[in-house]
Design brief:
The structure is a single chain. It is built from 20 helices and 27 strands. The protein is α/β, with parallel strands linked by helices. It folds into 6 domains: 1-60, no CATH class; 66-139, no CATH class; 165-224 and 252-401, 3-Layer(aba) Sandwich (Rossmann fold), CATH 3.40.50.300; 405-515, Beta Barrel (Elongation Factor Tu (Ef-tu), domain 3), CATH 2.40.30; 526-565, no CATH class; 572-681, Translation initiation factor IF- 2, domain 3 (Rossmann fold). Strands 7-8-6-9-10-11 form a 6-stranded mixed sheet, with helices on both faces. A 6-stranded antiparallel β-barrel has the order 13-14-20-17-16-21. A hairpin with a 2-residue loop joins β16 (442-445) and β17 (448-457). The N and C termini lie far apart (82 Å). 36% of the residues are buried. Keywords: GTP-binding, Initiation factor, Nucleotide-binding, Protein biosynthesis. One of its GO terms (cellular component) is cytoplasm. Residues 240-259 have a biased composition (Low complexity). Residues 213-268 are annotated as: Disordered.
Length: 682
């Protein structure tokens, strides 16, 4: 029953590694390796097997004669294109560039080529490295210009031109009546339901205007009449007729429009309601860039405010027609002489502001005509002159007649990006300018890509199979969240991945060369070495500062060793000071609100009661509810977590917060965040 030396378990034959009799096709390498009786035979078999595998590997890794490369790429993607290893590419980089990390190959393998993977190469730099592999590089480009997307359509396919819904943005200062104006148009009551009574995100909805049904929402978007809601427009139409101006004000630049009929053909309009606070400047800029018409709302009592000037600048910079509106005239213009003179003076000031700003940005002269920039007085609360407002919008949009190409690739812009922790994941709100987007289509937006898994309308939350231009929808199926204002392009799977990776590398390349221009990116240390040098410099400055402050504290002491400098007793190093800021982790509900909050935290926050300044350092910022990694990071870095309009964390995460005693603050209104973050940290 015993087995002779050299005899295999299967078949009873002796194994001879020099012959092929031991190779059994039905057995794997591990099975054959374990069947060999002695250690010497196992080593010899492994050596022969790995030698054949390396030969096949080398034959497969032969570099091509030519390769297509993007404008920016990582060494890892370049090595895959050249069909070579990252180690060989790193050796070629060391021979080509003086700044390439001179870390030994053994160390690179231990660290999984960490220093090399952090580098981003341009096409010119990659072309120099291709010479070492006898490969000819070619620049690969993917059409992302909206003017050139129509050229990619087949010549035999007709280019269908069709009208699309107009996009109208409502801009202005905070609490000037923007949301109330839109509530009156669609018969909703969003203004009273908002937290704090102010808008803190960009709302978008579609509305049909121009027939008897436009006074109520679109079919599928019912709004129940509640206490405090505006009355249906069909019942207030006669009451909202504009009052005829008096003879004394006939020459005034501000006049209520005469009664006229709205065009019989209904107009499909997409409205964008933007917040008016100064920290949401990017939302107003994006809305003005996307829209076809910008309505500037000005409060008759407060007049032109900083965000009013800002909104006018955004519209004129993007060459968008402006329709100025003076709001909150609940009793009309001619209620008394004082009100009439005040409103007329505001109308002249507003007209002059648009003209002067338009000259700075080469605003088209056709948009600066007196009829185009003449302010319109209204009252959204009482409905005064709202009929003229609807007439004016219809006349303006009928003159614009925006057209689109349905046969081209889908192209649009991102309005908002957020994350739903309930299971839907990353979601983006967008509106298309051209093309049709369908379920299953691949796309690239900003520096990310994805595939359309779900399309949902923003109004009635109805699931759609496709979306046409001008209709705001929510798309699910992204890899990561883009930034509001990024372009949205429908592409093939390979092109979408290519564009997203190229844009991501372009952003990293600019940051990498900022370090190089400052002298921090020197040869031998790579990008991580630059950060290490900066950290060493920071520690040196801190040590010199501490010694200098010790000399100021004890100028008569000759021996500094007798007295140790106590930083804790120094008010300059008190918690929340400039030299020792509070560390925070910021969590927000969307990308549009996250960036303004992080930007605000970079400046010192003042206590409204004492006026004391509190300095804050943002360790991490992300969208969504608090996760386990956020709690661990806060505990390790001694930071607190500041949440803005986020969902409560999961129960395991809440238990972890209590166990680690991490401070967490929740805010639903932005001015509470700005006013109370510094106070809560102290």
């Amino acid at each position: 029953g015993t087995r002779a030396p050299g005899e295999a378990k299967t078949g009873g034959k002796k194994c001879d590694c020099k012959s092929s009799s031991y190779r059994v096709e039905s057995m794997s390498f591990r099975e054959v390796y374990k069947s060999l009786p002695t250690r010497e035979l196992q080593k010899e078999y492994k050596k022969q097997f790995m030698g054949k595998k390396k030969k096949r590997f080398r034959a497969k890794r032969k570099s091509p004669e030519s390769v297509q490369l993007p404008r920016y790429m990582t060494p890892e993607s370049l090595s895959k294109s050249l069909k070579t290893t990252l180690g060989k590419l790193s050796k070629a980089g060391g021979k080509t560039f003086d700044w390439w990390p001179n870390t030994t190959h053994k160390t690179l393998r231990k660290t999984a080529y960490r220093d090399v993977k952090d580098i981003v190469l341009s096409f010119e730099e990659a072309s120099s490295m291709c010479d070492h592999f006898d490969c000819k590089p070619e620049l690969k480009t993917v059409v992302t210009d909206p003017d050139q997307l129509d050229e990619g359509v087949d010549q035999g396919e007709p280019r269908v031109k069709a009208p699309r819904p107009s996009i109208v943005s409502i801009l202005g200062h905070v609490d000037h009546g923007k949301t109330t104006l839109l509530d009156t148009l669609r018969g909703a009551n969003i203004a009273k339901k908002e937290v704090g009574g102010i808008t803190q995100e960009t709302y978008c909805f579609n509305l049909i205007l121009g027939d008897s049904q436009t006074e109520t929402p679109k079919p599928g978007q019912p709004h129940k009449q509640q206490a405090g809601d505006p009355k249906p427009k069909s019942s207030t139409l006669e009451a909202s007729q504009p009052q005829q101006p008096s003879q004394s004000s006939s020459s005034s630049p501000l006049q209520a429009h005469p009664p006229s009929q709205i065009p019989s053909q209904p107009l499909d309009i997409t409205f964008l309601d933007t917040p008016g606070h100064h920290i949401f400047v990017n939302m107003r800029d994006n809305a003005a860039f996307i829209s076809d018409l910008a309505i500037i709302v000005v409060d008759c009592d407060e007049g032109i405010q900083p965000q009013t000037w800002e909104s006018i600048a955004f519209a004129t910079q993007h060459h968008i027609p402006i329709m100025p509106v003076i709001s909150k005239l609940d009793h009309g213009v001619d209620v008394d002489i004082k009100t009439a003179s005040k409103v007329n003076a505001l109308a002249k000031e507003l007209t002059t502001a648009i003209e002067n700003t338009g000259k700075s940005f080469e605003y088209p002269q056709k948009h600066l005509s007196p009829e185009m920039i003449k302010p319109l007085p209204i009252s959204a609360k009482t409905g005064w002159n709202m009929h003229s407002f609807r007439t004016e919008i219809s006349e303006r949009l009928c003159g614009l007649e925006p057209m689109t190409t349905l046969s081209s690739s889908a192209y649009g812009a991102v309005i908002e990006a957020f994350r739903e922790d309930s299971g839907r994941g990353d979601i983006v709100t967008l509106v298309l300018w051209k093309g049709i987007l369908k379920l299953g289509d691949y796309f690239a937006t900003g520096s990310t890509w994805g595939r359309v898994k779900q399309i949902q309308s923003t109004g009635d939350k109805k699931l759609l199979d496709e979306v046409t231009p001008g209709i705001p929808v929510q798309i699910m199926g992204l890899n990561t969240l883009p930034e509001p204002g990024d372009d949205f392009i429908g592409l093939s799977e390979d092109d979408a991945k290519f564009v997203a990776e190229e844009r991501m590398c372009e952003l990293a390349y600019e940051a990498q060369h900022r370090l190089e221009s400052n002298g921090d990116f020197d040869g031998g240390d790579g990008i991580r070495g630059a950060y290490e040098d900066a950290w060493d410099e920071t520690k040196t400055k801190a040590k010199a500062t501490a010694e200098g402050e010790w000399e100021e504290t004890y100028p008569d002491q000759e021996d500094q060793n007798l007295h140790i400098y106590d930083r804790a007793s120094d008010p300059n190093y008190a918690p929340g000071s400039k030299k020792k800021p509070h560390r925070v982790i910021v969590k927000a509900d969307s990308q549009g609100t996250l960036k303004p909050l992080v930007t605000t935290c970079q400046e010192p926050l003042k206590d409204p009661e004492t006026g004391k300044e509190t300095y804050i350092e943002v360790m991490h910022a992300s969208v969504g509810a608090i996760k386990k990694r956020d709690v661990l990071l806060a505990d390790a870095g001694g930071a607190s977590i500041q949440c803005f309009k986020t969902r409560p964390p999961a129960k395991p995460t809440q238990e972890l917060i209590k166990r680690m005693n991490v401070e967490v603050n929740h805010f639903d209104v932005y001015f509470d965040f700005l006013r109370n973050v510094g106070v809560s940290l102290r």
